[in-house]
Amino acid sequence: MTQVPAATRALRVLRFLASQPDPVPLDRIMRACDLPRSTAYHLLNAMIDEGFVIHLGEERRYGLGVAAFEVGSGYSRQEPLQRIARRPLADLVDGTRQSAHLAVLHGRDVLYVVEERAPGRPPLVTDVGVRLPAQLTASGRAVLAALPLPQVRALFPDRAAFVQRHGTGPTSLSALRTLLQETRGRGYAMEDGEVTPGLASVAAAVLDHNDYPVAGVAVTFPSGSDEVVDLAGVVAQVRRAAGRLTARLGGRPSRPATAGPRQSQ
Question: What is the CATH number of domain 5-71?
Fold first, then answer.
């Protein structure tokens, strides 16, 4: 059992607020973070005093404060995740001969923070700094599958939250829940043509010491072409790379899937 429950709750609130596109009311914070009303109220007031949260009184909503921005800016300057990810991703490219990337969840999108392009492979839409709808990407699905359901529900409250690119992918929370359940059962996420027609990706989540998904590692390869891809081998190497990063963050790598996928061609 944790010895600092107040700190754990405060970090949980910060993480939830950071995942939202706009400030949110107290009830949303209570449900997403599993907090009693009085606890949430006093916790938010303490965080307001320290500058990590702001209260928009007229709207009765809470959002991130300047102190949270300062912490995020410090992270951006130091780039710890990007630094430790470059070698595993480079090894992943060497092993699969396909391009690999690392993405983090940013609201309902994923933000690509590292890309390692395989020699001779064309450029991908997943360049560093690009944002894409999380529910369409393999890396986003890997992260979403490892999140608590209330947080997924908060991110996708209605059909308007489900942006599409090519007319494919989940368009409702129930469809997304089914997809994420399948992802958890397989032990990895995948998408085929939902981001870019003719290309498919597989991904695995990177977990921190609290088993919270901080990023997704993915490999993208041709789909439906004459090129034969050892999909089972790619999946194994993606999971291995995610496991290496998870271990570096103090997390526990997930166990291998019980059954491997078929080859893609």
Answer: 1.10.10.10
